[in-house]
Amino acid sequence: MKASRIIAVTFFLLTLSEVVVSEGEEYASVRTTKVGVATTAANGQRLSYLDTDRPEVTALIVEIPPGGETGWHLHNVPVYAYMIAGTIIVEMGDGKSYRFKKGEAVFEVRATPHNGRNTGRKWAKMLVFYTGEEGRPNTTRIEKPANR
Q: Phi-psi bin for 119: left (phi > 0), alpha (psi -120 to 50), beta?
């Protein structure tokens, strides 16, 4: 199974709603909480997987200080995140924006200009999974779109 599909299946299993797994004593105390399920990013873009024979998954903790931002960029690969702390506003190149806060799943847009900003008073912290390909960049920095 390709790495991106393995991550997707794992993410799905981790997001099952309040299920107690009790098959075998070693799993008797395991709980899962559904964080989110999506077929699209916040802007309606359909989620998709890479078709590659060279899968590579990168997991990062991304921290943005109060008043900080990621800078305009786009993702060349599917990206999924979980907000550990704080709140971010993601501005899209078309002028729309989306808010994500602690405890929420983020299903990122692909090949679409965006910028993440922390407008709060606390650090924003995310666990991010890039389901990419060896030798292919996960993120490309871009100039601020003309209409922004």
A: alpha
